[in-house]
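Q: For a teaching session next week I want to show students how multiple molecules come together into a single three-dimensional assembly. I've collected the sequence lines for a complex. Could you give me the predicted structure tokens for the whole thing so I can convert them for display?
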Amino acid sequence: MSAALRTQGLSKSFGDFKANSDLSVAFEAGARHALIGPNGAGKTTFINLLTGALAPTAGDVYLGDERVTGLPQYARVKRGMTRTFQINTLFPGLSVLESVVLAALEREGRGGVWWRTVSRESAAIDEAGQILARLRLDRDADTPTRALPYGKQRLLEIALALATRPTVLLLDEPAAGIPAAESAELFQVIAQLPRDVTVVFIEHDMNLVFSFAERITVLVGGSVLVEGSPEEIAHDARVREVYLGEAQHG
Amino acid sequence: MTRLPTLAWSKAEIAFWLVPVAAYFLFPHYLTLGSQVMIAGLFALSLDLILGYARIISLGHAAFFGLGAYTAGLLAKHGFGEPLSGLVLAAIVAAAAGWLTSFLIVRGHDLTRLMVTLGIGLMLFETANQWSSLTGGIDGLSGVEMKKIFGVYGFGLDGRTAYVYTLVVLFLIFNAARVLVRSPFGLSLKGIREGERRMPAIGASVWRKLVAVYTVGAGIAGVAGALLAQTTQFVGIDVFGFQRSADLMIMLVLGGTGYLYGALIGAAVFMILQDYLANLNPVYWQFWLGFLLVFLVLFARGGIVGALATLHRRWTRK
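A: Of course. Below is the structure for the complete assembly, covering every listed component.
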């Protein structure tokens, strides 16, 4: 198997603080790969480096065979790598449907079309409708995003990402802030994604991590502590010590 | 059925556009004021595209108005007084200047943009002031002689031709803007307004869109300036003035940003109020304007059109 996404010595410093140091991680094509680690381990920084929201101090990012280190965020999305946000980063004044149509239009490079109305973009509208139906948001299509309940806003986070038709999907704590019952439901949606989509996700709920991930990378203090299958991670003494132990106590 | 913007005209919109037509017949002595209102409305419309839709704050939009005015004025002064080609050339000059300066604008954020646009406006004002051999400097550009529109309709003293000409140009450009804000491009501008951080994460290049809308906004401001030069057959240096940019911002906020109609209504209220209050008391009319502005910004966010839309929603819900 080849890596859909990998990094080579990726590092990021903020002044003296090393948020990520020398990360070389590979995500296999079609993987369900979890990134875990205690708070401050550098998980979100890592996502920001992968997607180009931050520029690395050193190291490289490869999407497939292509080095994308210097590319801006939108260009990486165009090449198939899309993220979601831990804190809702949506379009509060747009309706749910408008938001997803916008993402679909941008994917098709039609975001510059100014001479006809959105209502005539039936391909994008149909596709947005299908995505919303899949995430059970179709009844809320005309609701302004800001009026949507929080749990549904988390689903919309994913809907926007899906509309870009990613080959690599990076989910930054997709279930952050929603009750356990709902988060299981949300992971059902993620589990139903086609296998050709590589899914990398950050998650704190260990039940969800171990039931969903096929591969786990543990970050501690900005470095990779260990990587392995869920069994390997569950039985790894170092992981128990620095991470799971802490979680059980805390 | 889901609601996405279409081009269907509502009754309120049709009624709105009948007002300037009716005014032509009802107030023949106010046609000059009417033309000024519509020119200000077109100018405010151009700011609404960049401020109301893309959230670019500008205090120097008069730069493009002035460039358009001088382009049309100079053309006519030197024997090329055909109005329509003058408008087109004014739009091209202003849009080119908008495109060039957009690269300075899209980099920064609110305060930077405010200062950069202000600075560009000041530089152009001073350039026009110093280069008096071309612009007439502080005395203004006189000797602007317009030819007849289509070789038939001359700009007479009664202001009829100027009024109809301005109304037609305003309506055509308004229509194009109305399509634009309902288009995929318009949706992506709203996307920038509503969630600039998310846009790159759905694969959209924000700066490219900002460059595009800033260029369009500048071009339309240039047309507004050209209309002023052509209909008054004079260009004063105040076309570049800071006061003009500041008044423009007041008109737009008064009317409401992000509706297009807010620009037209704000300009009308501003100009008519100015005319009326200045007649009552020429010195202190700005007091009441300031009062109205503070009241609207604090108690009716979204300006006049925003307040009307809120009332309409409450009305229809009951």
